[in-house]
Design brief:
Layout lengths: L5 H44 L4 H5 L1 H75 L1
Helix pairs in contact: 1-3
Length: 135
Amino acid sequence: MADLSKSKKLDRLVKVQGHLKKMVENELAITTRERTELAERIEELTGYLITYDPLHQDMLKHYVMRHSRLMARDVRLEAIQQVQENQLLKETKKGEKLEDKRDSAREDEARERDDNSIYELVDLQISLKSSLQQG
């Protein structure tokens, strides 16, 4: 575990960040779905409030109270949704930064490997020349 390269460590972080982003996306989807369902209920209840049907007129007070509770819930869900959208944006940016760092680390490691192989070739060539000169 201690031998992990920087790019591999960053790759693991990118995967964890991806999972965090997915979690926020799922929470946002749930909130959005709840708001959609709530909007449908509010719309239906609004229809009852403006009808002249005597049955609904008798229930008007109940409908008004229910409507105000649904509207309050919608306001709360809207605030939650806004926070989740901001969190999603934040997690996305973090993930992109980690991916950039990982890619940069991979490039650095590849460059280092290339440099080391060139140094090994130079050392091999020098040792061959010195052994030929001695022999």
